[in-house]
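Predict structure. Input: ABC-2 type transport system permease protein, 282 residues.
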Amino acid sequence: MTTTRPAMPVGPAAARVDLRRMLRLARLDLTLMWRNRTAMFGVLGIPAFFSAMLVVGSGNGNTTAGIDAVLYTGTGDLAFFLIFAVFIHLTTGFTARREELTLKRLRSGPLSDLEVLGGSVLGAVLMYFAQSAVLVVIIMAVLDGGPPADPVLLLAGMLGGAAVCALLATALSGVTSTAEMAQFTVLPMLLLSMGLSGFMFPLDGMPTAVQAVGQVAPLTPVVEILRTAYLGRDYTVGGDHGTLGLVEGWTVCVPSLLTLAAWGVVGAWLARRYFRWEPRRG
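Output follows.
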């Protein structure tokens, strides 16, 4: 007969958080990623390729949804990079560390459950913000997109998207048997985000049924919020792409913010239900 601890943090002890310890764990997480060439390529190499394509494709004269097509994609990349820096990175990392008993060893020490998980999440989010900073420089300097029209709304969307991706990654790692298998279990989310989030191709021109699926995809509200916040124009699904003030920007993004919050609730439930600290058996 064996006794297992709750799947996810429960109680005051589990909720104790020391930011300094989380930062040390974040640094360790990033160091381990840097030493793993496969992980580094997935997290840094692919986003770097997408960023390079923005530079190469700038000035081609094509338009999408009333603006330069490359600028449209660049603002969408601000959301899309969450898939690599946060979702895929954490799914693979949590799975590998669980199977290697690293999570179990960390959990048996002075660290709380939230510190063990939060250190990796913090490292992934910091990496995402670093990539986003590079994207903003490209948008401003190469694509003539200017600075973000509403930095506060942009930050809210980035943090909300990072939280949802981290929660979904935590849940998915629990049903992924090995780090190698994670390359396949993350594919549905990756393909859904590429095709139906609107980061590169507008959902408005797609069939109604496809739009309906795309609008409830996890990354879609993030794309809508970040593009609208950056450009100061209504780029929510069905929006008229008209110029918005600061208050108007938040108003048109209310449905997207609510959808993102709903995914946060769903992600938290899934993480508590499926995340595992112990290696999978059988």
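Residues 69-99 form the longest helix (31 residues).
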